[in-house]
Specification:
The structure holds two protein chains of two kinds.
Chain A lengths: L4 E9 L2 E6 L2 E7 L1 H10 L5 E5 L11 H10 L4 E4 L5 H9 L4 E4 L1 H5 L2 H10 L4 E9 L6 E5 L4 E6 H10 L4 E6 L11 H10 L4 E4 L5 H11 L3 E4 L1 H4 E2 L4 E2 L6 H11 L3
Parallel strand pairs in A: 1-4, 1-12, 4-5, 5-6, 6-7, 7-10, 10-11, 11-12
Antiparallel strand pairs in A: 1-2, 2-3, 7-8, 8-9, 13-14
Helix pairs in contact in A: 3-5, 6-7, 8-10
Chain B lengths: L1 E4 L6 H10 L4 E4 L10 E4 L5 H10 L3 H10 L4 E4 L1 H4 L4 E2 L12 E5 L13 E9 L13 E6 L1 E5 L5 E7 L1 E9 L2 E4 L7 H12 L2
Parallel strand pairs in B: 1-2, 1-3, 3-4, 4-12, 5-6
Antiparallel strand pairs in B: 6-9, 7-8, 7-10, 10-11, 11-12
Classes of the chains: A alpha/beta, B alpha/beta.
């Protein structure tokens, strides 16, 4: 039986890992390679690593770091941050990364999605949609540069466009929910799930394994990604890299996965 | 020496990385002469059937790989689309496959899949293997990471050494003599995948 994917998402800032709240106030949570080693031991389904400095500072991907991460990763790795051209994407792919995540460049220049997909295959092109609910509206708009630039583009329409251009998977990343640990935003997840049929991974808001369970119950085969719950423990948010063990995961899936 | 064939399709470094961790020597082949000393061949593959076949045909390595595999009996393993091209043909394209194992590549039957995303079959799924040496020390229902929309249908049941279920049951690993293929990605399947690649090295 195919299982939904439960995916830790790690953010790199100033060479270290941080966890943000609504894309701000990054709290240092450790060293990237060390975290990957722990997640290997825990046998996580997949890993998303995003460099949150690269686009903001207009930097190219840090290839040396990516190479080190890929060398360590025993699971599929999705890497994003600073990939602006097909050549960047090919270079990152060549280092041993399965999934290339793009965000701001996909919004500025959507045809880049097709260009990269033709070179590395659709399934390897991931578009991360950082979105924020508009005030006094039911719409969610796309944001870039760590949420500091609002584009005015509707995220549901953009998801459809990304699929048409050959994107292999969409990561729905809620800025409002980031680090809040009070559950995923089902409103926008449902809306995007309704209109596209490529795989989706949701990110932002998971505070407990039950929150992950709820998204699995609602959408079945889906990627449930999270930051806080996999790097913090307890109500005082002590830093502790963690992931459900095989038994806990089996329980979770048994209890929440509709068969 | 494990030789990984780089013909522009697939994540070559992921295999290099696994063998580095296993302390088993490996190298990448980009020309036919790089294959002269090969003892094991890995044929990766990502992309559509026709694209992969065209790339392999244009790589200048096909003849040498065929000599090694079909005449010298060097063990080979095709991964993902690299497994699919072992068949004669595919519903996905019009190119002729290598035809090293009799069979056709078919689209996964999605009639019984109720999820919104029907294809690709992506994520971790259980496989059921027949105890072949390739699966030595790997549990009967171990999980592996898959990303694909087509599968290998063997003409002869004997060539199917493992199956998985997505919508319906289908073959996910094939073998005939020294020729192996797996639909899933052992290079990204944690301990099980590492064990499988180690077993391949020890065949």
């Amino acid at each position: 039986m195919l299982q939904p994917r439960i995916i830790p998402c790690l953010l790199i800032h100033n060479e270290g890992l941080v966890k943000t709240v609504q894309f701000k106030d990054g709290k240092y949570v450790g060293d990237p390679i060390n975290a990957v080693k722990i997640f290997n031991e825990k046998e996580v389904d997949e890993l998303i690593v995003l460099d949150i400095d690269a686009t903001r500072l207009n930097r190219e991907p840090n290839y040396k770091r990516i190479e080190n991460l890929a060398l360590e990763c025993r699971m599929p790795l999705c890497y994003g941050g600073g990939i602006k051209t097909r050549d960047h994407a090919l270079k990152v792919f060549g280092l041993g990364v399965e999934k290339i995540a793009i965000s701001s460049i996909a919004i500025e220049k959507p045809e880049i999605i097709s260009e990269i997909a033709q070179s590395v295959g659709n399934q390897s092109v991931i578009v991360v949609i950082d979105l924020k609910k508009k005030r006094f509206s039911s719409k969610y708009e796309l944001c870039t540069h760590n949420g500091t630039i609002k584009t005015g583009i509707d995220s549901v329409e953009f998801a459809k466009k990304a699929e048409q251009l050959g994107c292999g998977e969409i990561v729905i990343n809620s800025i409002d929910k980031d680090g809040m640990m009070n559950g995923y935003d089902f409103d926008i997840i449902d809306k995007i799930r309704e209109v596209i049929s490529i795989p989706i991974t949701v990110l932002g808001g998971a505070g407990t394994l039950e929150d992950i369970g709820k998204v699995i119950t609602r959408h079945g085969i889906i990627g449930a990604a999270a930051g806080s719950i996999f790097v913090f423990k307890g109500k005082y948010k002590a830093v502790l890299i963690n992931y459900p063990n095989p038994k806990e995961k089996e329980e979770l899936i048994k209890n929440y996965f509709p068969q | 020496m494990i030789t990984i064939v780089d013909y522009g399709c697939g994540n070559i470094n992921a295999f290099v990385n696994v063998y580095k961790r296993l302390n088993i020597e490996s190298k990448i082949a980009r020309t036919a002469s790089d294959l002269e000393d090969c003892e094991r061949i890995i044929l990766p593959g990502v992309g559509s059937f026709d694209h992969v076949m065209k790339q392999f045909n244009a790589s200048g390595m096909r003849e040498m790989v065929e000599k090694k595999v079909l005449e010298d009996g060097v063990p080979v393993i095709g991964i993902c689309a690299g497994m699919q091209i072992l068949a004669q043909s595919s519903e996905e394209g019009t190119q002729a496959g290598l035809g090293w194992i009799d069979g056709q590549v078919k689209k996964i039957d999605i009639s019984q899949i109720t999820y919104k995303t029907k294809l690709p079959h992506m994520g971790w799924n259980e496989i059921y293997h027949n105890g072949d040496f390739l699966f030595k020390d790997i549990e009967k229902n171990a999980r592996f990471y898959f990303v694909h929309s087509y599968y290998f249908e063997c003409d002869s049941k004997e060539n199917s050494i493992a199956t998985t279920t997505y919508g319906k049951v289908f073959t996910c690993a094939v073998n005939r003599n020294n020729i192996y293929g797996v639909q899933f990605h052992p290079e990204k399947s944690h301990q099980n995948g590492q064990q499988l690649l180690k077993n391949f090295a020890n065949l």
